[in-house]
Amino acid sequence: MTSQSLDSFKARKTLKVGKKSYEIFSLKAAEKNGLEGASRLPFSLKVLLENLLRFEDGRTVTADDIKAMVGWLKDKRSDREIAFRPARVLMQDFTGVPAVVDLAAMRDATTKLGGDPEKINPQVPVDLVIDHSVMVDAFGTKMAFSQNVELEYKRNGERYEFLRWGQEAFDNFRVVPPGTGICHQVNLEYLAQTVWTRKDKVKTKKGKETVEFAYPDTLVGTDSHTTMVNGLAVLGWGVGGIEAEAAMLGQPISMLIPEVIGFKLTGKLNEGVTATDLVLTVVEMLRKKGVVGKFVEFYGPGLSNMTLEDRATIANMGPEYGATCGFFPVDAEAIDYLEATGRKSARIELVEEYAKEQGLFRTNKTPDPEFTDTLELDMETVVPSISGPKRPQDRIALDTAPEAFALSMEKEWDKLAELDKRVEVEGRDHDLGNGDVVIAAITSCTNTSNPSVLIGAGLLARNAREKGLEVKPWVKTSLAPGSKVVTDYLEKAGLQKDLDKLGFNLVGYGCTTCIGNSGPLPPEISDAVSKNDLVACSVLSGNRNFEGRVNPDVRANYLASPPLVVAYAIAGSMKINLTKDPIGYTKKGKPVYLKDIWPSTKEITDLIRKSISKKMFKDRYGNVFEGDENWQGIKVEGSLTYDWPMSSTYVQNPPYFEGMKMEPEPVTDIENARVIGLFLDSITTDHISPAGSIMEKSPAGKYLSEHQISRAEFNSYGSRRGNHQVMMRGTFANIRIKNQMVPGVEGGYTKHQPSGDEMSIYDAAMRYKDEGVPLVVFAGKEYGTGSSRDWAAKGTTLLGIRAVIAESFERIHRSNLVGMGVLPLVFTGEDSWKSLKLDGTETVTIKGLSEGLKPRMTLEAEISYPGTKKKKKVVPLLCRIDTEDELEYYKNGGILHYVLRNLAA
User: Fold this and answer.
1) CA torsion sign, 267 to 268 to 273 to 274?
2) Terminal CA-CA length for the chain
3) Predicted pLDDT at 868
4) N or C: which terminus of the chain has fewer CB atoms within 10 Å of its end residue's CB?
5) Which residues of the chain have pLDDT under 70?
6) pLDDT digits (tens, 9 = 90+) for 198-219
């Protein structure tokens, strides 16, 4: 729990709650003892300050780091890097499998080193929720859920068998089985505690005693929408796999003390306006403001007019407005939510008492914290809205939606002249046209955690049925709730029947349409769209609508509230103005308007009170880790180490620890390395890391074909993240990456030297490996921008690349490279690979590694040009190993090796 050995600000105190006593690190005491102004900090920074006080050890956290937190108040920004240790880690299955693979590989390596494999466990609690593998194949029937579950287990059997083993084998590691819910909603409704506790042995005057510490619940997650739990005053955000693994293994996460943008909310939402309309407005405002890499903290009297679920809806979309997190403090509403969702009474009492003691409890009388900058929204000005056709921040007022679609037809697709084009659908008695809605999905964590919009959608469906309205026959409808509690209250309210009648049957509990798991359109609809080049639309209640993400047949994607998803399914087209035009007609031909079937706020609120109970949460989460008969039917050996199936194409033992000894080998200079890539500016982790579908002729596709996997069973790189053989073949294999060693060629190609043979980067790397030749990559500015992706660094090291030499790095990818034992180097002065006139035929020697390597020291690269006319050139390079901890990781061959040696010792 704590590596704390110092207490420079005399912060450690005892807090009595009821009959129990807890050890805390008091912010009030620290303020009295040298941290003047701590009480004026934003709530989110107070959480970071407490974390530093608790982990002060003079090395990873110093007294100066802690002082820098209150020093932030001077300019409301800081360039100080701090070490943050979250209380726990949350994973979803796509990104969680590689982490469990690494843990299993570490156990094997420990055994080979003569150590005890039982010592290899997560050092902080880890919860992995299997929620990213369900696809909407079946829909619109009572059998949709069971059919989709059957297909899910068939596709993912190897991965699930592995995770089932991990569930049994590791301490501090829990798996929420498939078909339970979305990780963020399970986190909000059950896993999160707002205040975390842990028993620890500490030195006292009497010797070693076990005491219970209380501290803010914090986390990092391997999904960008981990931010959702910020709505419950839990500080957390999404990170890449390597940072998550580091946190899981008790290592600190390095971060800058962030700027904090205060977002003041006043007033309350008007009748007919939903939380989704509010969040789309917030996303638009914050994108305009520019909050990338910053914390956003919500404050103001408007918070008292918001439910906890409305706050979670806003917090969920932190990645869409670009912030690290969107934080809401503890207040009476948070306490009520913990009570309503069945948390234990002792925990609820602790949360309230701890938050009040620490100055972390908000009321309408609480003075506003000091912020870097602020903006304000009167919620009474929010109007019904959607966002699209391809970015969450492109908000459209509902009453202008048809005009906005027409504008997109002109600007995005140059098809305004074809706006009213319609074609016959083969084998069906209806036609299809531009602007028709072919997918209407109530999906994703954003809104399915919010009863007001789900009950609202159900009531709208009921009212529509009473008027005789039906969904258009070309619409693929789906309902994928974030937890089983949603099903319970929709059924108790009698609304699931109404949704079923309109085709919104349960398809699964998981992340579906937002991540492209919308499943295929019916073949005749797909053919009509593709053969006639139609601009088909989707309307989804999720958070992501990027181009090409939802479904390959659908070009225009709109985010909307669940009631509007149902409304658009009935209307069937984006060209209908739902605020003025009829949404449909009764059997007698009478027009029906949206206002005729839209439920009132009072109707929704009354039904929520009657339909949702604390017992539902207690019943559903009482056995949340047990799973259904499919999960329980997976037989696994109760072994400490994993029996890797040689034939598996999903899970393989990675080679990180081959030949590893208890003492690390001395670091050696990089001699006569070959260049495998010359890249320009802004090479992103999406360019480097394997993602999306696997092409048949790619190295990964050839590997799967050689293992008798048919093209139809390739699945995606995401689903095969547990197999390094697939992933290393997909590294630098993006179809849009441009290696300047092969000018004019797109994709992951290079030239092997000195032969000059053109081939895939993977094939060249393996040839160099056979020849015993080390590799380097050269790049321009901002190398590794974009989302943190662990395989961008893992794949780099497995290809045999020992150093990346760039003009500048994105911060997280730089640290990930160090974490995988790859040396990041930066040109000094005006140098670049272009100014050095490199073409990839050169050899590179980097000296200074073997003697006294220090953080941020200057090293020398000796570049030898081919032929005799050009002389060697010596170029100074800044070593971007930035801290002593990073140096230890690098000397050990990576963070996993460093931790493994420490645990095995």
Assistant:
1) positive
2) 20
3) 65
4) C
5) 1-4, 788, 868-870
6) 999 887 777 888 999 999 999 9
Say what the pLDDT of residue 800 is.
98
According to DSSP, residue 390 is labeled S
Q: How far is CA 400 from CA 414, 599, 803, in A?
A: 20, 22, 53
For the full predicted model, state whether its pTM sits above 0.70: yes
Cis, bond preceding 252 (omega within 30 deg of 0): no
Question: Of 367, 361, 294, which is closest to residue 333 (Cα–Cα)?
Answer: 361
Are 537 and 437 within 8 A, CB to CB? yes
Phi/psi of residue 539, each to 5°? -125, 120
Of the residues 555, 577, 612, the one at which a domain ends: 612
DSSP state of 509: S
CA distance 812 to 405: 38
545 within domain boundaries: yes
Joined tokens for residue 71: 């020093």
User: b/e per residue, 273-299, with b = 16+ CB within 10 A?
Assistant: bbbbbbbbbbbbbbbebebeebbbbbb
Nearest residue to 625 via CA among 104, 267, 125, 268: 125
Nearest to 805 by CA among 723, 901, 875: 875
- Based on the fold, state whether residues 289 and 201 are members of the same structural domain: yes
């980067």: which residue's tokens?
761
- Domain containing residue 854: CATH number: 3.20.19.10
Query: What is the four-CA torsion angle of 708, 709, 711, 715, rounded to 10 degrees?
Result: -170
Question: Letter for the amino acid at 569?
Answer: A
Cβ-based neighbours of 60, under 8 Å, separated by 6 or more: 3, 83, 252, 885
Residue 245 parent element (H or E):
helix 241-248
State pLDDT tens for residues 426-485. 999 999 999 999 999 999 888 999 999 999 999 999 999 999 999 999 999 999 999 999
pLDDT at residue 905, rounded to an integer: 78
Closest listed residue to residue 359, CA positions, set 35, 80, 81, 56: 35
> 397 has which bridge partners?
385
CA 40 – CA 43 distance, rounded (Å): 9
> Is 788 a domain residue?
yes
Clarify whether residues 122 and 257 are in a common domain.
Answer: yes
What residue numbers bound the domain in which 123 lies?
88-381
Q: Are the C-beta atoms of residues 847 and 669 closer than 8 Å to each other? A: yes
Tokens of 732: 């630098």
Token reading at 419: 């706006």
Instruction: Tell me the C-alpha distance between 242 and 169, whole Å.
Output: 21
Same domain, 166 and 293: yes
CB 60 within 8 A of CB 29: no
In a domain? residue 165: yes
Neighbours of 787 (CB within 10 A): 17
Place of tokens 């190897």: 158
Q: Please spell the DSSP secondary structure of 637-681, one letter per residue.
A: ---SS----TT-SS----GGGTT--SSPPPP--EEEEEEEEE--S
The set of long-range contacts for 692-695, using a CB threshold of 8 Å and a minimum separation of 24, is 692/716, 692/717, 692/718, 693/717, 694/720, 694/726, 694/730, 695/735
* Tokens, residue 791: 């395989």
pLDDT score for 95: 83
Q: How many angstroms separate the CA atoms of 269 and 282, rounded?
A: 13
Q: Among the residues of 322-419, which ranges form H helices?
A: 332-340, 345-357, 401-411
In this prediction, residue 1 carries a pLDDT of 47
Confirm if 84 and 150 have CB atoms less than 8 A apart. Answer: no
Q: In the prediction, which pLDDT does 29 show?
A: 98
